[in-house]
Amino acid sequence: LRAENTRHQFHPMTHPMMSAEHPPQIITHGDGCYVTDLDGNRLVDGVGGLWNVNVGHNRAEVKQAIVEQMDRISYYSSFSGSATAPSIELSAKVCEMAAEEEITKVMFSANGSDAVETALKLARQYWHLVGQPTRTKFLSLKQGYHGVHFGGLSVNGAPYYRNAYEPLLGGCFQIDSPWTYRNPYSEDPEELADAVITQIERTIQAQGSQTVAAFIAEPVQGAGGVIVPPASFWPKLRAVLDKYEVLLISDEVVTGFGRSGSMFGARGWGVKPDIMCLAKGISSGYVPLGATALNKRVADAWYKEFSETGIIMHGYTSTGHPVGCAAALACLDIVEQEDLPGNAAKMGARLLEGLKPLAERCSIVGEVRGKGLMVGLDMVSDKDARSPMDPGNGIVERIAGYAREEGAIVRPAGSVIILSPPLVIQEPEIDIIVDALTKACDRYDA
Ligand code: PMP
């Protein structure tokens, strides 16, 4: 298998010529927070698949829901007015769980990139429907990650994802992220939040508010390196967008359904977005599924009149896939019954506290930060200058490799080591991750 792996399979975000030093990991089994690899090693899954296996691996309830739905019907479309029971039930479930956000409509898709693309397109159509078709531009944050489709890539905040695929959508502007560790403004969280809000307001004014459709951001930036904004940032963001009537799209692909310690990431900041992008945790990776949730303000625009302009000319063959929706219903029951947002907050605090000493003790750990079960170790080549470690020198990968030898899978992403274990994780497994990374860092310094 190892030799065959890259023969015909193109791997995302990886050079096709994987080096012998970093052979691809091949996983054969999973249960709860553990996975087993091809060599029979049983490891704590500190990555949770790809921050998505929130209910843990191999849950009987989810498998049963999938099989029962397949026994009824594996696929029929939820398209042009037809539907299946699971998609109807899941749309109601998501609206019930996001009642606080006044979410009243959901459109399903197959993954996070689809959920973002749907959000951007529906935001544009919303402005058409309410008679302001000039509002077409999108604002977002540097270090933001919004998937790989052309729209999502255009609002992506990291040039290295975009460069090879340009030209992208015009009229997209990335503003500095409110990142206390590295920013051109201030280390004081309040001053920093205000400085970034000022940049956003200036951009809206310079473009003309009548041209701006929406602002898209992650409540906690994930792939960009687990960047937690100051607590006042999101409320201030909502206020400035309200001032100019710009829509707020919360990309909750990672944070949705509990990962950052609240049911939705924006809720953790006390903010109600207009549109939410959901994927990953909705179906915990058992099946691919994405969802775009609209609040009443946005959704109601489609109900003004029965006209051609109100037709949603967007949707996928897999929209509302019955097996995906059935699996998601089973996953969301677990999220609620086992209070996974609460457990993420509690276990995340333990993980953060356990790892924080590494920023003092290890020569190449600059900062340990996180919220809930999103934790990042910022690896640096110079602690005082806070210079990010060059991913090309292989050191971040080496630390991840050492941690793996100590029993935990962690994710090297650029210069940051990311931790995002299943939300069902308990203290013993948190401690294994902390112990593995501590030993890995000590081994590097020795
Ligand atoms: N948005 C965010 C915030 C993400 O983290 C991701 C994936 N990591 C996506 C969108 C894209 O999701 P997918 O990979 O399922 O297309």
User: What is the H level of CATH, i.e. the homologous superfamily of the largest domain?
Assistant: Type I PLP-dependent aspartate aminotransferase-like (Major domain)
Number of domains: 2
Rg value: 22 Å
CATH class of the largest domain: Alpha Beta
Structural class: alpha/beta
CATH topology of the largest domain: Aspartate Aminotransferase, domain 2
Residues in helix, %: 25-40%
Number of strands: 16
Bound molecules: 4'-deoxy-4'-aminopyridoxal-5'-phosphate
Q: Any overview of this molecule?
A:
By secondary structure, this protein is of the alpha/beta class. The protein has two domains: 2-55 and 339-445, Aspartate Aminotransferase, domain 1 (Alpha-Beta Complex); 63-337, Type I PLP-dependent aspartate aminotransferase-like (Major domain) (Aspartate Aminotransferase, domain 2), CATH 3.40.640. 37% of the residues lie in helices and 17% in strands. It is built from 16 helices and 16 strands. The strands form three sheets. It has a seven-stranded mixed β-sheet, with helices on both faces. Strands 11, 12, 13, 15 and 16 form a five-stranded antiparallel β-sheet that branches. The chain is globular, with a radius of gyration of 22 Å. The two termini are 35 Å apart. The relative contact order is 0.16. The model has no long low-confidence stretch (mean pLDDT 96). The structure holds 4'-deoxy-4'-aminopyridoxal-5'-phosphate. 4'-deoxy-4'-aminopyridoxal-5'-phosphate binds next to α5.
